[in-house]
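Notebook, student rotation project (T.W.).
Task set for the rotation: take a protein with a known small-molecule partner, predict the structure of the complex, and write up what can be learned from the model alone. Partner molecule chosen: magnesium ion. Sequence and SMILES entered below by T.W., checked by me.
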Amino acid sequence: MAMLEVKDLKVNYGLIQAIKGISFELNEGEIVALIGANGAGKTTILNTVSGVIPSSAGSIVFEGKDITKISGHKIVSMGMAHIPEGRRVFANLSVYENLKMGAYTRKDKAEIEATLKQVYEYFPRLEERKNQPAGTLSGGEQQMLAMGRALMSKPKLILMDEPSMGLSPLLVKEVFSIIKYCHEIGISILLVEQNAKMALGIADRAYVLETGNITLSGKADAMLENDEVKKAYLGV
Amino acid sequence: MKNLKKSSKDHLITYGILLLVYIVAEILIKTGNMSSLMQGILVPVCVYSLVAIGLNLCVGYLGELSLGHAGFMCVGAFCGAYTTKMLQGTINNEILLFTIALVVGVIMAALFGFLVGIPVLRLKGDYLAIVTLAFGEIIKNIINVLYIAKCSDGMKVAITDGGAIEVDEAIGEMWLVNGAKGINRIPHLSNFTIGMILIFVALFVVFHLVDSRSGRAIMAIRDNRIAAESVGINITKYKMMAFVISAAIAGAGGVLYAHNLSTLTATPTNFGYNMSIMILVFVVLGGMGSFRGSIIAATILTILPEGLRGLADYRMLIYSVLLISMMLFNWAPAAVNWKKKVMASINNKTSKKGQVE
Ligand SMILES: Nc1ncnc2c1ncn2[C@@H]1O[C@H](COP(=O)(O)OP(=O)(O)OP(=O)(O)O)[C@@H](O)[C@H]1O
Ligand SMILES: [Mg+2]
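Predicted structure of the complex:
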């Protein structure tokens, strides 16, 4: 059984149907990429899966439990972390406080310190700036903070919404190497990206989304060779 | 001192300043050096400070605008005064009587905060400002048409039709709430000391709240709602917690206010929209998120117009100049830097002392 199973999911914003009945799945240990043009509905899907916005039809099952109707704050403690689009850090809290907020749902105090140490190891720059208000970090640093904060909840699955958005090529590489690292330590990842080339390069499988429908799915490396994908998303 | 966190040190400074002000004021009163005008204004200063502390929790920490805190103050005032009138004959100890009235007023204000919060705090956006504004006006109007009397054959309640109830004071019957005439002959239980104690308690509550896990959750929601949800914070619960506590503190201010008057009425000047805005001015000028600032602003801006009464025409002019200078003192970069320097040098001195000892 897959770790995350989404079936016939529909999402409406008022009268507009943004997601028109999609199904996909993610197996434990996989990186699954979700690619598509602007406005295709990628963010909407992630927000619905993590419980930030409600669905209007369909089901979402995470580790065998139906989470369709469960509110976002409870889903986090089930082991799913969400890094929202656009580097949403707590601007007035320090870097350290932001990271501590990531462990908000955890009760194991001693182990939280251990996780914090680990996060500082992945992101030494965050440790250097631990007392700085998060709002004054650079864009790249804020993205790292958002990732570090997600790791603080010790997730089994991370939903990432365009982690490379607005970053320099060098930082994009760094972010992807961190994604790879998360994968190596056993975290499953649902990755939404504009940078289709990098996303398909790192993912096991991928789905292509077009205006609320999934139009293509399959192995990521096969997609890199697919003519339609090449034309539409890889700019070849 | 050195091991204390920066925030707890800051709290201690606030408590210290308050205690000092209290002692100085008491000495001035006891030695006959305070004019009766000033003495009369001490309790109102405490009242506005309390409501401003409550509102600051809502605006500065929760990041939600409330334009109806005078409404919660009004609920506290009327429920508190009503309780006192009901129990006046049965309980003779004044402190006990006031404490019971306080508990009732605070609980009722909290309850109204909860009721207003249920529909509004689930929404995103500035709905709270609109709904609280309406709430403040509605509550005032309801009280103005509410008639409750204690008669020989039991309690009588009427809405709008006060004439339907006959009260014969000669046989011990009395009005508890008499429509627009409000509540009469409230025992004068408030005083400066009680006001200061209430401020201390309110500060104790809000300081503990903002330093706690719940407080961090509240600030996280203010900073970024989506991120807060994504780390597992129950948004509605913590918004509600902050808002209800905020309303409760405003209610405490109301109870103090009511027992400082012999006749309590709900008029546009004391519980209306203008009052809510005035409290908001205290909060904004004192600095969002600074409870000490709220108290200072409430104090200066309450004392000053009274002190300037003699100047008649120039009063509002000086008042506005003062508003502007306070704004500059709080927000102008030069003033902010200067304050930082002063704070840093104070901190240095205290920590050096700690090393020597
Ligand atoms: N809050 C909202 N209210 C109404 N419509 C919305 C809302 N949020 C998104 N939409 C619409 O839903 C559709 C999907 O939006 P979504 O943000 O999911 O796209 P996306 O694939 O993440 O795009 P991008 O790559 O630009 O981030 C768009 O047409 C968008 O305009
Ligand atoms: Mg998006």
